[in-house]
């Protein structure tokens, strides 16, 4: 009877050890699966939500710039001169000129912003991390130029005022621009590209 009890105890211990080993393997397999799935989703986000060619880059930039200019320029003007309807209307009159300057500075700062983004983020970082850092770098560079040039366009004269008060105006302009880009302009532009790519993929499936 004693031997039988010893065998039963050893048998139970072996079962417990086997269960632990199986559980570890299952956990490891699940982790590898979720990591692979996460990496796959990250790659799909880059593929589906960002431009694939020059035409799509133009669409992406047009959506972002039009939304940004129509929100950021009137907001900054109202912070400068007061929140009145006539101030808002006056800001709308110069928006076409500001939009041209925005396009110019987007093209000017595109490469430096990409370079800065690559210095901060790593290859394994998430899609969202890349996007946030890229927006931060782009807005940082553009807001430096547009704090000066935007004031000249809005006031319809070239003066030293935006340079003299630069460190007073720039933090506010940067904050407004970053918030609009992060929460409104870029999400809408990425959604437009996502729907466009989904439509392209449907056409490719039908053709094949």
Description of the molecule:
The chain has seven helices and no strands. It is an all-alpha fold and about 210 residues long. The chain has two domains: about 50 residues; about 160 residues, no CATH class. The termini are far apart.
Q: Strand pairing plus helix content: what structural class?
A: mainly alpha
Low-confidence parts, pLDDT < 50 over ≥5 residues?
Answer: 7-11, 24-39
* Number of DSSP helical runs: 7
Round the mean pLDDT to the nearest integer and report it: 81
Quick one: biggest sheet? none
Radius of gyration: 27 Å
Give the CA-CA distance, first to last residue. 73 Å
Number of domains: 2
Shape: globular
Keywords for this entry:
single chain; globular; 7 helices; 208 residues
Question: Which secondary structure elements does this structure contain, and how are they paired or packed?
Answer:
Elements: H1 2-49, H2 54-81, H3 85-93, H4 95-120, H5 127-155, H6 161-164, H7 166-207
Helix pairs in contact: 2-3, 2-4, 2-7, 4-5, 5-7
In short:
The protein has 7 helices and no strands.
């Amino acid at each position: 009877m004693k031997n039988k009890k010893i065998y039963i105890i050893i048998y139970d211990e072996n079962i417990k050890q086997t269960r632990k080993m199986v559980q570890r393997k299952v956990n490891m397999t699940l982790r590898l699966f979720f990591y692979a799935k996460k990496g796959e989703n990250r790659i799909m986000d880059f593929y589906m939500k960002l431009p694939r060619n020059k035409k799509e880059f133009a669409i992406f930039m047009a959506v972002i710039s039009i939304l940004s200019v129509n929100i950021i320029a009137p907001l900054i003007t109202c912070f400068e001169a007061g929140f009145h309807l006539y101030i808002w209307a006056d800001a709308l009159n110069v928006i076409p000129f500001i939009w041209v300057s925005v396009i110019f500075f987007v093209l000017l700062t595109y490469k430096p912003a990409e370079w800065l983004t690559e210095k901060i983020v790593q290859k394994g970082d998430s899609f969202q991390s890349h996007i946030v850092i890229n927006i931060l770098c782009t807005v940082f560079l553009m807001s430096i130029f547009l704090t000066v040039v935007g004031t000249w366009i809005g006031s319809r004269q070239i003066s030293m005022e935006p340079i003299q008060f630069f460190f007073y105006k720039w933090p506010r302009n940067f904050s407004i621009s970053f918030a609009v880009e992060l929460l409104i302009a870029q999400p809408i532009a990425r959604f437009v590209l996502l729907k466009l790519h989904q439509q392209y993929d449907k056409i490719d499936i039908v053709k094949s």
